[in-house]
């Protein structure tokens, strides 16, 4: 099932999400649906709040960046109840976009390397050390489950310069090539 993507301004994108228990119904199906929704929207990551669910869950598949970054090849994962346990002091500037902010792309500083602990869709625990595009995608999606969108990480001047675009988007003035949904407070 392909879900609509919730757009900037929807309150669900600002919630800190709740952990998922082992008894969560149809988790495997939800993970499959999230990958299907992400691919249908031409994304490389998707967090549960982006489909209206207040859950500590996201999926990534960085394969589209494999030609630029060998660490991106074959990196496809579901992250349940993740926790970033370590970040490098070195930060790198890279361009980012977001399915919940269609048409908006900005340069964002993030730690170059991270270590993340998480459960997969079978509740097997993993701990990955990531860099390159996998680290970038995971940090972006992790922010979503913490109620943060990538524009929150921009310099104050840059935020001021895009404020009108964000306000317009929150009022439903945007274009997307995939199904979207907007809710307001």
UniProtKB/TrEMBL annotation:
The active site is at 141. Pfam families: Pep_deformylase. Keywords: Hydrolase, Iron, Metal-binding, Protein biosynthesis. Removes the formyl group from the N-terminal Met of newly synthesized proteins. Requires at least a dipeptide for an efficient rate of reaction. N-terminal L-methionine is a prerequisite for activity but the enzyme has broad specificity at other positions. Binds 1 Fe(2+) ion. GO terms for molecular function: metal ion binding; peptide deformylase activity. Fe cation binds at residues 98, 140, 144. It comes from Candidatus Tidjanibacter faecipullorum. The lineage of its organism: Bacteria, Pseudomonadati, Bacteroidota, Bacteroidia, Bacteroidales. It catalyses: N-terminal N-formyl-L-methionyl-[peptide] + H2O = N-terminal L-methionyl-[peptide] + formate. This is Peptide deformylase. The keyword Cytoplasm does not apply. GO terms for biological process: translation. Belongs to the polypeptide deformylase family. HAMAP family: Pep_deformylase. Its cofactor is Fe(2+). Its EC number is 3.5.1.88.
